[in-house]
Please model this.
Amino acid sequence: MEKVPSFFDTPSPPRYSGVLSWLITTDHKRIGLMYLWVILFWFVVAMFLGGVMRLELMFRGETLMGPSSYNALFTLHGVIMIFLFIIPGIPAIFGNFFLPIQIGTDDVFFPRLNLFSWYLYVAGGGLALATLFIGGPPDTGWTFYVPFSVGTHSNVSTAVFAAFVLGMASMMTGINFVTTIHRMRHEKMGWFQMPLFTWSLYATSWVQILATPVVSITLLLIIAERFLGVGLFDPAKGGDPILYQHLFWMYSHPAVYIMILPGMGVISEILPVFARKPIFGYKAIVFSSLAIAIAGSLVWAHHMYTSGMSDTAVFVFSLLTFIVAIPSAIKVFSWVATLYKGSVLMTPPLFFALCFIYLFSVGGLTGLVLGAAGTDIHVHDTHFVVAHFHFTMFGGTGFAFFAALHHWWPKMFGRMYHFKRAYWAAVFITFGFLLHYVPMFVIGLQGMPRRYYDYVAEFETGNFVAGFGAAFMLVGLVLMLGNLMVSLRQGAVAASDPWGGTTLEWTIPSPPPLHNFIKEPEVLDYPYDFTQVLKTRRDDVEVS
Amino acid sequence: MRRAADHQGTRLGMWLFLYTEIVLFGGLFVLYAVYLSTYSSDFIEGGKSLSRLFGAANTLILLISSFAVAASITAVQKTQKKRSLLCLAVAICCGLLFLMNKYFEWGHKIHADIYPGSETLAYGAPGRNIFFGLYYVMTGLHGLHIVIGMTLLSVALVLTARERVTAENHVLLENVGLYWHLVDLIWIFIFPLFYLVL
Model:
């Protein structure tokens, strides 16, 4: 392929250079990378917060901190991980970078709005950070449940406002992506020629647009309650605290699909490439994404079985929850079927993807235990719930994020990382993950409640073992990130198509030039057609 | 590879944004619906204590302003710049008038010791507190949107005066108009819910 300057060398707009060429750029690739660095920063911060909590829990009694610091830690860990890492993670970094390329265009539809979203995101993060220093960090948990969130003297208002601003950023990105996919797809690319990652972003963006405003108003109401004391959720003044929970989960349950759908898109993108085989059930995956987006918006009250609802409501929400499991299972079966009889080429991204399928399945199946109203009453608000959502959010979205990092790293930076270290990191993370969260299922079933810094003697073994799991995980994560960073300087120069992928991003140089395509992109009739790849390069990873 | 400006796409983005605004208020409408069924009699009484004259006047003012904005778009399309500017100025004045009315209405109520956290509400009937709590939150948020809308209208006015908004390229004015119509539309729902609840 001919040599063209990459987007690193050609700032857009061209009149700026240095830091300014990043801070006021409208190039979707640069914005994607700016998201990458900020999001990784927050991930590392929240990761260490989680590590400190785990250390506290390893031994009974007060080892490192008392109850109030512990409350602040799990709130910050939750707020940062959810609003600053998982929700924006895959769409803002990889969506921004690859969505326009995958649909054969040169940028998103509203490039300036895109940059504005980044600033909103950074501002929201700054506000979250400010809560640490002004008025005492919030101690409500990331759900900000009333009446505690209105009554507590910690700085809930700033944290809530941070979440509001981050919600705006996420909404703007959603609007941008939907418009981009509708209006800027290459003219030869029909809806069913779109890569599955783009499809998953499309479904995600709709959920972002549909659901985020509900939480925006809910969070604004908390601020109004704290400053004005309106009493809309205060029983003493005629309000109903349960209504807060309904409004909160009306967004925050769909939000878990905002978190997982892009991850599923990443996996659907990686598996066919390394199985050298068309994805099994392309349309089934597309429609299951949309089905998850729709059905996932109707199940919010399954977080509230113990809050006080009519039996009919519990029954309906339980049924709907079981229905969401079906499209998720369709995807898992399609992924496994894609691997079946493929000529599998093992690479770090595939390794992470395989771990994802296993961990996500465990997370999904334990979700059914919680979705069933009867069993949920028993394990509600225990460590079982904590283990369940870490399996889906970390084992699911987190691993998909790592897979995406390893899959697209050579494309984004034009450098290939060290494979062996990447495998070791993945093994450490996965092993540590299981050692950390499986004991939590057990002690959860035995009845250990979440959000306590101390516990009774019977939970000692489980918590002690989980601490070692956390240590393994931390080592793995540091190794993984270090390996990627080192590759930027020492890594081999990556080819334009190191893996043998078929979607459009692999037809252009690594890293891509400013306008992405040098010549008119050739859109395949079917995005996962590997006949050519199988003929020429069945099982090699190309480094130029 | 830059393509020609795609006005339809810009409008699509605006409609998506308008949708998010509707859902933002939707959360409040949900609260209203639930509390109306719990405290119907308090809501009816609260509604009677609001001035229908002021409410109706404000409704009329917003309808006129929406007409003015629509007329300004037509004027721009027909390259009648002056008429367009005049229409926009009328719309902005209507917005100001609306806010003035609201100021007097709120001031009157606050003078009567009816505001969030006031003693009359805190120790009175809970339903009455909820009614006026929602009244202040919803009209307050709506008022904020009026202010934002007026700012946007002013921006459109300046850009029209500088001929950045023209007959060929008036998608910005159109989108500002859409926003203003939305603010108007939300009031059309707030008005009967608070002033005409029987």
Q: What stands out?
A: The interface with chain B takes residues 105-106, 109-110, 113, 171, 174-176, 178-179, 182-184, 209-210, 212-214, 216-218, 220-221, 224, 228-232, 237-240, 243, 247, 250, 515-517 of chain A (CB under 8 Å). The longest strand of chain A covers residues 415-416. Chain A has a mean pLDDT of 92. Chain A has 16 helices and two strands.
